[in-house]
Amino acid sequence: MTRVLIIDDHxxxxxxxxxxxxxxxREAETRIAHSMEEAERVIAEWExxxxxxxxxxxxxxxxxxxxVRLRKLVPKATIAIISAEDDPAVMRxxxxxxxxxxxxxxxxxxxxxxxxxxxxxxxxxxxxEVTTATPVPTLHLTGREEEVVRALALGxxxxxxxxxxxxxxxxxxxxxxxxxxxxxxxxxxxxAGRARELGLLPVRxxx
Length: 207
What we know:
The chain is α/β, with parallel strands linked by helices. The protein has two domains: 129 residues, Rossmann fold (3-Layer(aba) Sandwich); 62 residues, Winged helix-like DNA-binding domain superfamily/Winged helix DNA-binding domain (Arc Repressor Mutant, subunit A). The chain is built from ten helices and five strands. The radius of gyration is 17 Å and the shape is elongated. The C terminus is likely disordered.
C-alpha cells in the first residue's frame, strides 16, 4: 500500500488533494498535516510515508526550509511540492534541494492530475518548462545504460535482467548505480519513471 502524507495549512486544499490522490491511486493511504510540527508527529506515529506532498508556505516553515527538514527526516520518501508559486526559478531551486516533483495549484485540473499521477507512479514530475532548465538535459547515457533502463520496465530482478542482457549481475549493478547518479534518483521505480519523462521509455497508458 502506498502511504501519502499531505502537508498543507489550508484544510479544504488538503482534503481536495487527498481526494485527488485516492482517485489516482485507489489503494493509497493518506494522512494530512497542517504544519511542519504536525507533520513530524504524524511521521513519528505512522510508518514512513512513500510520498510527501508539501506546500511551500506553512505557519512554521517558509520557502524550501520544510523540504530540507523532510529530506533529513524521511530520506527515502519521494517529496513533491504543491504550491501556487509558478516561478521556474523556484521550481529549479526545489529540484536542487531534493524535490522530485512540483505541482502548481493554478494549473488546469487535468494537468495537475497527470502530474500527480506521475509523482505517484514514477516518483518524478516537473512542469515541461522546468525540466529543460534543470541539469538533466546534460545527461548522457551510454548505449548499454539505455539498454539497462529499458530492461527495468520489465519489472524483473537484477539477476534475470543481467542474464537477458548477457552481463554479470555485478556489471548490471554497476550500470544501475551509474544510471541512478545520472538521473538523480535512488530506486529502480524512480529510474524507470525519469526515463519515461526523458522519452527513453514509452509512457504507460491506463485502460
